[in-house]
Amino acid sequence: MNKKRNIVTIAGWIFVVCLIIFSFINKAEKPPATAELYAMDTIVNIKIYGDNKETILKEVIKKIEEINSYVDSFSPNSDIYKINKNSGIKNVTVHPETVAIIEKAMELAHNTNGAFNPLITPLSQIWGFRDKNYRIPSEEEIKDALNLTNYNDIVISKNTVFLKKEGEALDLGGIAKGYTLDCLKEILDKMDGERALINNGGNILLYGTPPGKQWKIGIKNPREDGIIGTLNIEGTKFISTSGDYERFFTKDNKRYCHLINPFNGYPADKIFSVTVVSDKGYYGDALSTAFFIIGKNEALQDVKKFDVDIVVIDSDLNVFCGEELKDSLILENGKG
Amino acid sequence: MKSTRSRIKLRELIYLSILIALGIVLNLIEPPISPIPGAKLGLANIVILLALLFFGKSEAIIVALLRAILSAFFKGMLHPIPLFTSMGGSIMAAIAMILVYDLCRKHFSIVGISIIGGIINNLTQFFIVLYITKNSALWYYLPILLFLGGISGWVIGLITKILYNKMKTVVKNGS
Amino acid sequence: MEKGDKLLALILVVIFIFAIGQYTFVSISKVKRTIIIRSDGEIVEQIPLNETTEVITTIKSKEGAVTMQVKNGKVHIIESTCHDKLCIKQGWISKTGESIVCLPNRISISITGEEKNEIDSITY
Predict the structure, then answer these.
(1) CA B139, B140, B141, B146 torsion: positive or negative?
(2) What is the spatial distance between Cα A263 and Cα B168, in angstroms, rounded to a whole number?
(3) Which domain holds residue C10?
(4) What is the pLDDT of residues B74-132, one digit of tens each?
């Protein structure tokens, strides 16, 4: 009788030890603090890892909502709306952050010789991309709209912004998401963040190093389901993509996308998409738009000038990369 | 006579406090088992069982509740989900064990009662997490969870039995 | 050992056999991908995604609703109350990291999993 009990007891103790050892080994990686929110007319997905992830997450969400309130051109309370409403009339006092974003937009407009243009709004309007009444405008309408896209008409003094001509209107959609990511990186730096991944409408901030040493970022296939390839990225980087598949309409078998060429007033159609990898969020965001407009060859040439890396998908679904990225891109159909 | 009664009450209070403190420590040091957040072995059930065996139903429930609440204080509200599952499992297990002890003590040994506690503990934690995360994939884990609950209950029962036998002389007769 | 104890032992054995059987046939190891559905930013449902899952379900949000279908290890939206129906045009998704979003309805459907080669995010 005693022997039986002893065996049972010993077996029990062995099991205890095993279970405790198992529990310690099995300590899976702690899940991140996550959030999904809607801002700047798109969806934002946030993943923060590390010890103070919840506090960082709160700060990040606050910042996104704050910038959104400044730049949302459809909301009557936003700085941008007020500036646009008073175009040609008077200057408007705005939040210093709004001024910062507009200044960066002008910097990129100058650097890209106007390929990135923050005053693109009148053109977006006549093609129907602002009110979703998609249409093909007349030559006259295009000419008139082109007259309202001179970004030198943006006058900034202290904390006021003035658009010289009536009808001019700012659209920071091509740079605000990237700029926001810059601010979020600052928050992560300040609060000693360990690792994070923030996807702001396709613009991604990679912060820190993942367990697998490299971040794996998929590039959406512009025409088919799924991704066309994967980028292996190391460390903290910003990724932005501009493509013709997000907002577009088709007429007579021709696709008209929301990225309009500021030089001729027509939706750009040289390539299907371009992805930019950079060290500055606002830079990559604006450049992805600019590169999409100017096309493959010009973009590949400008890569060194802007100190960024790019992946271009042309209208035959061929993929081209800048020199540095060649080894980091793995295509779905096997080619490296 | 009065002083003896109050001395006994005081002794009981001290023992219960020690048990509660022990329960808190056990709960703090035991490592979690994935994939259910907050799921643990349930070592705190040891003290609940001891309270039940030495003192009775009401004392056991008090120990269970106080243990859960004080553990929550120590851990803080930073991660509410594991806290919730841990508390819920612990209290439901305590209720189940007390009911079994009260109604059909004859049919179960200490170890048996503990096995029931272990299973109910994991079962409760499972449903709490299922409700919070709404993850239908969790159902796949139920059988193994219940089995592990039973096994840990068995082990905890053995430990409790040994402790009970050792402490019987001290607690019942006073020192 | 009392009567009740013997019963418990029996129950545990049964549960164990059940668990083993389930692992062999349904194979928990195969449930590597999960579909996570969010409405207005909050997770409202999670569905395991394997080759045999077949589901058609409607997801509601404050702004509207979409109907999604799961079949052959893939997910897509078949109906939506939104104006542009861009979410339907997004087609099928099946890999970890992929997602379909209906912006006007604030509903997102994404796939997560534990595969080693999964991508962290998609740029678009």
Answers:
(1) positive
(2) 92
(3) 1-30
(4) 877 766 777 788 888 889 999 999 999 988 888 888 899 999 999 999 999 889 888 88
Q: Is residue B114 within 8 angstroms of chain A, CB to CB?
A: no
Ordered structural domains, chain A, with CATH: 74-163 (1.10.3980.10), 209-331 (3.10.520.10)
Q: Are B155 and A12 in contact (CB < 8 Å)? A: yes
Taking an 8 Å Cβ-Cβ cutoff, which residues of chain C contact chain A? 38, 41, 83-84, 91-95, 97-98, 101, 103, 106, 108, 116-124
Q: What is the reported pTM?
A: 0.79
Where is B163: in which H helix or E strand?
A: helix B142-173
Distance CA C111, CA C48 (A): 9
The total domain count for chain C is 2
Distance CA C112, CA C93 (A): 11
Q: For chain B, what are the domain ranges?
A: 2-173
The band of A336, judged by pLDDT with boundaries at 50, 70 and 90, is: very low
Q: What DSSP letter does each residue of C38-101 carry, written as one string?
A: EETTEEEEEEEE-TT--EEEEEE-SS-EEEEEEETTEEEEEEESSSS-HHHHT--B-STT-EEE
Are C67 and C49 found together in one domain?
yes
- Name the residue in chain C with its Cα closest to that of B144: C19
Of C68, C71, C78, the closest CA to residue C36 belongs to: C68
Between CA B107 and CA A80 the distance in angstroms is 77
Does residue C123 lie within any of the structural domains? no
> What is the per-residue pLDDT across A244-299, written as a single tens digit (0 to 9) for each?
998 899 999 999 999 999 999 999 999 999 999 999 999 999 999 999 999 999 99
* Class at the top of the CATH hierarchy for domain B2-173: mainly alpha
Does the beta-carbon distance from A28 to B158 stay under 8 Å? no
Same domain, residue pair C21 and C46: no
Residue of B nearest to A31 (CA): B37
Show which subunits contact C, needing at least 3 CB pairs below 8 angstroms.
Answer: A, B
What are the backbone dihedrals phi and psi of residue C45, each rounded to the nearest 5 degrees, phi first?
-160, 150
User: Phi and psi dihedrals of A233, rounded to 5?
Assistant: -115, 140
ipTM of the complex: 0.86
